[in-house]
User: What shape does this take?
Amino acid sequence: MDRRTVFNNRLLPYLLLAPQLAVTLVFFYWPASQAAWMSFRLEDAFGLTTEFVGLENFQVLLRDPSYYGAMVNTVVFSGSVAFLSLSLALLLAVMADKQIRGATAYRTLLVWPYAVAPAIAGVFWLFMFQPSLGMIGRTLRGMGVDWNPLLNGGDAMLLVILAATWKQISYNFLFFLAGLQSIPKSLIEAAAIDGARPTRRFWTIVFPMLSPTTFFLLVVNIVYVFFDTFGIIDAITRGGPAKATETLVYKVYNDGRLGGDLGGSAAQSVILMAIVIALTAIQFRYVEKKVTY
Assistant: This one.
């Protein structure tokens, strides 16, 4: 049966869409167009004088070795956070989906970190792992581990990866748990009767049926690590030490807001936006083919 919603007033559908379209235009397309226009201009730090320079900002940016360093940091950071947050969230969701005592409290505690602001999450992890004052940091140094994220770039990168992963696990957990609870138990019971072990049941039945949820979370997590982790990095390392944790989004802020290079910063934001759009398109073009709806 073909079910369609019929509006008596022809203007009503457009009125219902208007608020969302207005938000999209004002907070996405307008800033994006402004950034694209600024990337072709050279401005002073106060925006008082401007000069059209064409592609010069992009040419200078692509000759900057530090930009490629930030790109490498972004690849390492985004790949690690996406993999860890998805893997750990799936493991926790599988455990929470079982019939265990205190399951409700267990699920509630796992959701709480999502309510923490990124900057607060960054400060929280910095306090724990600060080499001289943090409880875990002092314990590691007391055990003979040379731990110092304030001076060691590898330690700093590990710390921001852990903080960003912890912040995102709750979001992924909610969707994985909902996906697990929507899988018919009869399929799993039938496989168990046929002699399939728990591991085989998971990889042949459960995980394939979670593929739509996994694909959705993969797209969301890529956007998260590229943009929403700015507050965590700013609170913990500010891109240091020696730019070891400076990602592409933090370099946009560092060069534009602190360095006063508004045109170069706008060029970076345009490239970053193009990278995220390209990654999303690739996921929909190739990864979605393996999704079973």
Summary: The longest helix spans residues 65-96.
